[in-house]
Structure formats: C-alpha cells, structure tokens
Write a structure and sequence with these properties.
alpha/beta; UDP-N-acetylmuramoyl-L-alanine:D-glutamate ligase; Protein-Tyrosine Phosphatase, Chain A; 2 domains; six-stranded parallel β-sheet; six-stranded mixed β-sheet; 12 helices; about 20% strand; globular
C-alpha cells in the first residue's frame, strides 16, 4: 500500500511529516520515492508495509500500474520545462500518479488551484483550503476539529502550515489521533536546505533555502519574511521560468538582491527597479556582500529560485557551500 505525495513545491517536507506521523502510530511504515529509497526496493524488502512516497513528474510520467490508496497534490506551477516538452505534459505526468485510484481511495488536493482541484481520479477528494481542511485565526482544522496551532509550529511560513495541514489530513483520514499529529507537528524542525534557519549574525537572521529551485518556492520564502528587510541571494541555472510575476513581491520584501549564475541577467531584467540589484560571478562574492550590507533586523535569505547545475552538483552541495561560507565569513568578521 502506498501514499503518494506530489506537487511543484513542498513534496519532501510533506512526505517527511506524513511519514513521521504515520510511523509514530502504525508499526510498519516506510518512506521513499524521490526522497530516498525507490518504491521497488521497499516492495521487495517489506511488501506488507505502508509506503509514504514523494513522487516527481519524471516518475509520474512513466507509471503504468501504480495505484496509491491515498495521496496529495500540493500545488502546481511552471517547472521542469527543460525536461517536459510543455506545461501540459508536466501536468498530465502529475495526473498520471492518481489515474488508477478507486472509489475507496482518497486524494487531498489544493483547493486554491484549478489544476490540482480538477485532478482526474475516482478517489474521494479532500479539498485543502475549504471546509474539510483549512487554516483560520492561526489554527489548523481537519474535518471540523482543531488539530494544530500555527504559533506552536517550529517551521515558518504559511506554505509550511499548509504542508502540516495536508500531512494532518492524510494521517487523520487513516485513523491517527490528533494528539499524535500534534506531537510530531510541534517537534518538527523542517528539512535541511528548506528555509533552514542558520542562526543570527550581529542581529541579522540567516536562512538557507537552497532547495528553492522555482520562482514559486522563492515566493513562499519571501512571503514568510518581514517587509523591506530581506537581502536576497538568488540565481542559478534557468529552467525556462517566468520571474516577472515576482516583481511586486520583491519590491515589497527585498532591500537588496544579489544575483549569481547563468540566469542572473534574466532575473535582473525581470526585477528592474524593484530593488537594488547586484550581479556576482560566485556565491562567495554574493555572501560576502550580503554580510557587508546587512544591518540589525535584516534577513539574509539564500533562495535561488533556479536549478543548481550551472555551478554545483545539486541543491545540497549548493546549500552546504552557502552554510560553510556564512560560517567562514562570520569567523572573519568576529575576529
């Protein structure tokens, strides 16, 4: 049996949360898919388990017999157009994950987007953001019950609160009591490289969001930050993305933008006059500049909104390099 979790952003966080909640209550739960162990290996090793799987569009496109008993389609925005021939192919690859579900199965979908809401499936749909599951006045409600309080979560941002809500819906639907959901949700500190808090430097908070590989992921990060306080480091390999849509938000949140990578000129053009923009040839130069211009109360946010392959092996190497640079420059300034 499998729970399949997909979406443009938030897959890994929601998968991990769902796995942690279910494994706290049920005995035989495994985690895998895009996040780690392939589903085929899990089936061979433990065929009777419940597998919580992160499923990408690349995997979704090739599936022929996979049928998850439950799942979630978190969100949908432009991505991977360097791999998919067009946006419709990307969407259909997501839909294919749930196309063999039956009436007794369930699927939690983002109610705010037509692409997710209209997912073709025979399964019972649970609309995240409407009556069955929603956030109101700082509380998360599932099927009429208050399940968690946002102020007690350790992960920041409304996008993360929605991830917790989705994981709660899956767990609650499978019979997990709310106290188990709360225990896991309130102790979960998030995954590395996903709006990861690195600490405070002379009153400046620093976040490592290296997993941000799309403008939509950057949007979620910026919306979690105070107005006109963000020193943003962004850029990398362009995947055919539209950065213009972020112009207004960048103008509202970002006091300086430090751009790197092959997409830096494209991003600079898209955000022209939104904020002060600087272009650099390396992450080292950008981090050093960020630490130089940051003042107490500011936030340094590394959220590239691009793939890493032009400068790094993957987002993990990119995030580790950022973390090492912050520590290295911090020691220099401290001394």
């Amino acid at each position: 049996k499998a729970i399949a979790i997909t979406g443009t952003d938030g897959k890994s966080t929601t998968t991990r949360l769902t796995y942690l909640i279910l494994s706290k209550f049920f005995k035989d739960v495994e985690e895998g898919g895009n996040i780690g162990t392939p589903f085929s290996e899990i089936v061979l090793k433990n065929p009777e388990c419940l597998a919580v799987l992160e499923v990408s569009s690349f995997q979704g496109k090739t599936l022929k017999s996979f049928r998850p008993i439950g799942g979630a389609f978190l969100n949908f925005s432009t991505d991977h157009l360097d791999w998919h021939p067009n946006l419709e192919d990307y969407l259909q690859s997501k839909y294919n994950i749930f196309s063999r579900q039956k009436e007794e199965d369930f699927l939690a979908v983002n109610a705010f987007q037509e692409e997710t809401k209209n997912t073709p499936t025979k399964a019972r749909k649970i609309l995240i953001g409407e009556k069955e599951a929603h956030i109101k006045d700082g509380k998360g409600y599932v099927f009429g019950k208050e399940v968690f309080s946002l102020e007690r979560l350790k992960i920041v941002g409304m996008h993360n609160a929605m991830n917790v809500l989705t994981a709660s819906v899956i767990a609650y639907t499978l019979g997990v009591p709310e106290e188990v959901i709360q225990e896991v949700a309130y102790n979960f500190r998030g995954l590395p490289y996903r709006l990861e808090y690195l600490g405070e430097f002379n009153g400046v908070r620093i976040y490592n969001d290296s997993k941000s590989t799309t403008p939509n992921a950057l949007r979620s990060a910026l919306e979690s930050m105070p107005d006109h306080k963000v020193i943003l480091i962004a850029g990398g390999k362009d995947k055919g993305m539209n950065f213009e849509d972020l112009h207004t938000l960048v103008s509202k949140k970002v006091k300086a933008c430090l751009l790197i990578g092959e997409a830096k000129e494209k991003i600079a053009k898209a955000w022209n006059k939104a904020t002060d923009i600087y272009l650099f040839n390396s992450l080292e130069e950008a981090v050093e500049k960020a630490l130089c211009i940051a003042k107490g109360g500011d936030v340094i946010l590394f959220s590239p909104a691009c793939a890493s392959f032009d400068m790094f092996r993957d987002y993990k190497e990119r995030g580790d390099r950022f973390k090492a640079l912050v520590e290295e420059f911090y020691e220099v300034y401290k001394n």
